[in-house]
């Protein structure tokens, strides 16, 4: 699947998910196609915001601190993808769903894309717009998790799909908060 019909993951009943799950690409290829390029956006935007917004809001923070924060954030993001795949599979198995590693990894690489893209809102120097963009990205990621549980993990029972999606989302939110704190640690110290 190329990234151009990504919107079908939100809009179609199963068309986009079938195309995504139907291809049995290796984990490395999925990681290289989805996680690696999109996970670069938040660290690059963190650096951009540090040089522009940060210079105004936190003038005492050196540029090197923003560079270090961006690097920490990127490394943590890349490490989180396989950890979330393991967590998705474990949660699904605990609910009686026979999820394989490939499907869990597929979901872990696709679900955070809207959240990663939401970092582009840092181009706008308006705190309200930044918060709105991040909330929109988070909501889109939550929707992808729920739909991915239904179509990639093949959970037909809505309550079980909602339960799995809820636990995965909660764990993902905790991971995102840890990522943000880890990314901002060099700046705040």
Number of strands: 0
Structural classification: mainly alpha
Number of helices: 9
Helix content: over 70%
Low-confidence stretches: none
Q: Specify Rg, calculated over alpha carbons.
A: 17 Å
Transmembrane segments: 31-49, 69-92, 104-124, 130-153, 165-188
Protein name: Yip1 domain-containing protein
Keywords: Membrane, Transmembrane, Transmembrane helix
Q: How would you portray this structure in words?
A:
By secondary structure, the protein is mainly α. The chain has one domain (4-188). It is built from nine helices and no strands. It has helices at residues 8-11, 15-22, 27-39, 41-57, 63-94, 101-110, 113-117, 127-151, 158-188. Helix 3 packs parallel to helix 6 and helix 5 (63-94) packs antiparallel against helix 9 (158-188).
Overview features:
189 residues; mainly alpha; 0% strand; elongated
Compact overview of the structure:
The chain is mainly α and 189 residues long. It contains nine helices and no strands.
Q: Secondary-structure blueprint of this entry?
A:
Elements: H1 8-11, H2 15-22, H3 27-39, H4 41-57, H5 63-94, H6 101-110, H7 113-117, H8 127-151, H9 158-188
Helix pairs in contact: 3-5, 3-6, 4-5, 5-6, 5-9, 8-9
């Amino acid at each position: 699947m190329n990234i151009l019909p990504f919107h079908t993951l939100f809009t179609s009943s199963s068309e986009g998910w079938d195309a995504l799950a139907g291809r049995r690409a290796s984990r490395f290829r999925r990681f290289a196609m989805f996680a690696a390029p999109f996970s670069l956006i938040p660290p690059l935007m963190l650096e951009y915001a540090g040089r522009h917004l940060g210079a105004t809001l936190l003038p005492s923070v050196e540029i090197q601190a923003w560079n270090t924060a961006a690097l920490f954030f990127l490394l943590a993001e890349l490490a989180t993808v396989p950890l979330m795949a393991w967590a998705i599979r474990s949660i699904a198995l605990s609910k009686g769903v026979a999820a394989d590693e490939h499907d869990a990894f597929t979901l872990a690489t696709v679900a955070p894309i809207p959240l990663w893209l939401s970092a582009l809102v840092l181009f706008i120097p308006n705190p309200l717009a930044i918060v709105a963009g991040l909330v929109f990205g988070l909501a889109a990621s939550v929707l992808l998790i729920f739909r991915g549980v239904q179509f990639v993990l093949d959970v037909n029972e809505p309550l079980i799909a909602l339960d799995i999606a809820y636990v995965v989302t909660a764990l993902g939110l905790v991971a995102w908060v840890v990522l943000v704190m880890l990314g901002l640690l060099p700046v705040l110290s």
